[in-house]
Amino acid sequence: MTSAYTNTVSSSATSPLRLGIAGLGTVGTGVIRLIREHADLIKNRTGRSLEIVAVSARNRTRNRGVDLSGLTWHDNPVDLAADKQIDVVVELMGGAEGSARDLVEASLKAGKAVVTANKALVARHAQTLAQLSHTHQTPLLFEAAVAGGIPAIKTVREGVAADKATRLGGILNGTSNFILTEMAETGRAFADVLKEAQDKGYAEADPSADIDGWDAAHKLSILTAIAFRPIDFDTLAVSGMRAITTQDIHQARQLGYAIKMLGVAKRLPEDRVEAWVQPCLIPAHSGLAQINGVYNALTIEGPFSGPITISGQGAGEGPTASAVVADLIDLARGHALPLWGRMDELAPIPCEPVEKLPSAFYLRANLNAPADAVIDADKALSEITTLLRNEGIPLAKTLHHTPLGEAPQLIMLTRPIPQEEINRILPILEETTLISGAPLALRIEDLP
Question: Residues 119, 219, 260, 266: which is the catalytic one?
Fold first, then answer.
């Protein structure tokens, strides 16, 4: 493999880099506006201009607020791959399958560089795309696929390229972070804040990708492939945040923690990889605990570089368009790396089973409150802690509290144990007559 892919880009080129854009939604029109408004700046930084020559979208007649006159229109986006006037295809349609996948694969086979913001496509078809990029010596860049305007890919692939990263992770989804932040600051319920996020456009009508962790999982899979090695996406453990209440957030704060939806990956001995996405307790004084609202943050650690944290807006027209154009500027300058930033093409491996990974855990159980019954919370806590100790669950801290107008809750912090032990004990707790509903367990993570 050569050190850089050169069939579509060259550091000595001065002619315009000609673009075909598929997808004219918020990000696509943002890319057009940015390129046009910053045309002089881009040319000064690259020595050549970026020229949009063709586009494709579902609706040809829709008014998108940008002038498309003079551009070639393709009703079928895959036709961009065969358009001889195009040097680079910019895929902004989204989706892991269908036209987006067909276009990217056809473009790479045709020798056209590709820039995409499609996290699902890159995460789920990484091996195929890496092989096509390698075989046809054609660059595929995807900075905008992870954390919007934050240079997460560049930091992991280039900024710490000299170090052997040991761990990376952070807040990789702005919608989930907005919801947890609002719950913490206002005391409002999850469902209420979710509706606000949808009203503001932070969450889709179907919010499952954000609140169930799949959006963050796609991003984590990409970062893990760059920092460590490619992983089999289907083995990445993903848990959502639907069961978290404002009382959990309040109790975590009283214990010195914040609750954040995290994606974390670690390098393990013998070329193994740990990777998972789930809500966690992190120290309230940590840097990640201070990242609120729709902001994302990523921390990466290595033995030489130490911990490095970057944060910023993880979505939206401006930040995402900026990341797309940053990749185009790299191509215009003649910079093109292999997909994962290294010369070997490693096959994906399965993640280590999350059930085997040790951690301390936060446990919350609601006490059963029959009508007109008086609950002795101290006695219930004593019985539950005895049960846990008899089951071999080591406890570091126990307490109970009574939310206003509700039944008492038991709060317990365990010492580090494998997650399979927590998974084993939760049904046992739920079956006791003392507990009402399903108990909640959250990992306690020590990211800086």
Answer: 219
Instruction: Give, in order, the Cα–Cα distances in Å from 302 to each of 166, 167, 181, 308, 338.
Output: 5, 7, 29, 9, 22
pLDDT along the chain (448 residues), means of 10: 48 82 93 95 93 93 89 96 96 93 97 95 92 91 89 92 94 94 95 92 89 96 94 95 95 96 96 96 94 94 94 84 94 84 81 94 88 72 93 93 82 96 95 92 90
Residue 275 near residue 224, CB atoms below 8 Å: yes
Cα(90)–Cα(70) distance, rounded to whole angstroms?
A: 18
Distance in angstroms between the alpha carbons of the first and the last residue of the chain = 38
Spatial distance between the Cα atoms of 329 and 156, rounded to a whole number of angstroms: 19
Q: Which residues of 122-138 are buried (b: 16+ CB within 10 A; e: fewer)?
A: bbbbbbebbebbbebbb
Second-level CATH architecture of 354-444: 2-Layer Sandwich (3.30)
Q: Do residues 446 and 264 lie in contact, with contact meaning Cβ atoms separated by under 8 Å?
A: no
Q: What is the pLDDT of residue 3?
A: 41
How far is residue 320's CA from residue 174's CA, in Å, rounded to a whole number? Answer: 13
Class in CATH terms, 163-312: alpha beta
Cβ contacts of residue 41 below 8 Å, gap of 6+?
none
DSSP code of residue 284: T
Report the alpha-carbon distance of residue 103 to residue 89 in Å, rounded: 9
pLDDT at 370: 62
CA atoms within 13 A on the CB side of 304: 6
From-to residues of CATH 3.40.50.720 in the chain: 17-148+319-333
Which conformational region is residue 155 in: left (phi greater than 0), alpha (psi within -120 to 50 degrees), or beta?
Answer: alpha
305-321 core/surface letters (b: 16 or more CB in 10 A; e: else): eeebbbbbbbbbbbbbb
Which architecture, in CATH terms, is 17-148+319-333? Answer: 3-Layer(aba) Sandwich (3.40)
Instruction: Say what the pTM is.
Output: 0.90
Q: Is 164 a catalytic residue?
A: no
